[in-house]
Design brief:
By secondary structure, the protein is α+β, with helices and mostly antiparallel strands. It is built from 3 helices and 6 strands. It is 30% helix and 35% strand. It is elongated.
């Protein structure tokens, strides 16, 4: 015989605590995975606006295009963690402007194409190098005018 008195439903407070615990665990797991993948460092100065892209699987990515301090062009991509909300993602994308210098931690990934092998830096961590907070984004016309000056 089944004792139904031992079966109970969690309360709203218990469900909320469980959801917060799962989110904290997901953030900690993601941070640990990103630390393990951060083998190299790259500093770039953005020469174009970052592109926000979405994969078929629902992943969100930001593609950065810029120049390294030695003058070589570099491409980088940063994949947003699953626990990040769409508003947080949009705020991050809007925060970077042409001319901003970024410090990236991650690894180089080769891509084989028709014209040979090219490398893209897969960033695990992105930080504005010239200030604590990302640069304020202006209109594209204002940025182009400031860039040409």
């Amino acid at each position: 015989m089944i004792d139904f008195t031992k079966l109970r439903r969690p309360t709203a407070a218990e469900r909320r605590e469980e959801a917060q615990r799962r989110r904290a665990d997901a953030i900690a797991d993601d941070h640990t995975r990103r630390l393990l993948r951060s083998r190299d460092a790259l500093r770039i100065t953005l020469t174009d606006h970052p592109d926000a892209r979405f994969t078929i699987a629902g992943d969100r990515a930001v593609h950065f295009y810029g120049d390294q301090p030695n003058g070589r062009e570099a491409r980088a991509v940063w994949y947003a963690p699953e626990h990040m909300s769409r508003d947080e993602f949009d705020t991050i994308v809007a925060g970077y402007a042409i001319g901003a210098t970024l410090d990236l931690r991650g690894y180089w990934k080769p891509f084989n194409g028709n014209s040979g092998t090219s490398f893209t830096f897969v960033a695990q961590f992105v930080k504005a190098a010239d200030r604590d907070q990302p640069a304020e984004r202006k209109s594209p016309d204002a940025e182009i005018a400031a860039f040409d000056a």
